[in-house]
Amino acid sequence: MTEDGSAIEDTPIDGLLVIRLKQGEDPRGTVREFYRSSAWTVIGPASPVAGPWLQVNVTETRRGAVRGLHGEAMNKLVGVVSGGAMGVYLDARPGSPTFGAVHTCQLVKGVQVFVPRGVCNGFQAVFDDTQYLYCFDQEWQPGMPGVAFSPLSPDLNITWPIPVDPSDPAQISAKDRDAPLWSTTPGTT
């Protein structure tokens, strides 16, 4: 629990954290902080969850569309600001004690995930116009180190909440669909 009352949950992937934010509600609606660096000192004063965050992106995604699985060499803090999604995370870090582990979670407003560098991140929007926010501890650069795997890799046993038609570019990009299968990664068999 953080000093502001948010809850932090460990996952089966080393370093991947699910954060449930404290919310305030009144007749006008809801208020929640998306981020406050001082709240994360409970994890440790040098915790990467405390940032700094150097780039923030937002995607707006149609219901049923899948993005990912991408594992860049940077830490990420992700969450939805509108709509909802199923988040999927794959530990692709060679030498990690949880290498190959997959974790899924429902992402709704007020739930964030801290994704350590090298852990792949992907999601499927379960509502139209889902807005998915990414905070990065580095600015993205062309040619930046990273890995990508097909979110349709059968050996990952991901059950998407909405069936994915691999031939429908509105559901999955050719780049994501045609990324390497997880089973082609050394050390996975």
Automatic annotation (TrEMBL):
One GO-annotated biological process of the protein: dTDP-rhamnose biosynthetic process
Pfam families: dTDP_sugar_isom (PF00908)
Cellular compartments per GO CC: cytosol
Sample GO molecular function, one term: dTDP-4-dehydrorhamnose 3,5-epimerase activity
Site (described: Participates in a stacking interaction with the thymidine ring of dTDP-4-oxo-6-deoxyglucose): W140
Domain of life: Bacteria
Keyword entries, A-Z: Isomerase
Residues annotated as catalytic: H70 (proton acceptor), Y134 (proton donor)
UniProt-listed Gene3D superfamilies: Jelly Rolls
Ranges where the record places region Disordered: 167-189
EC number: 5.1.3.13
Family affiliation: Belongs to the dTDP-4-dehydrorhamnose 3,5-epimerase family.
Protein name: dTDP-4-dehydrorhamnose 3,5-epimerase
Biological source species: Cellulomonas cellasea
Lineage: Bacteria, Bacillati, Actinomycetota, Actinomycetes, Micrococcales
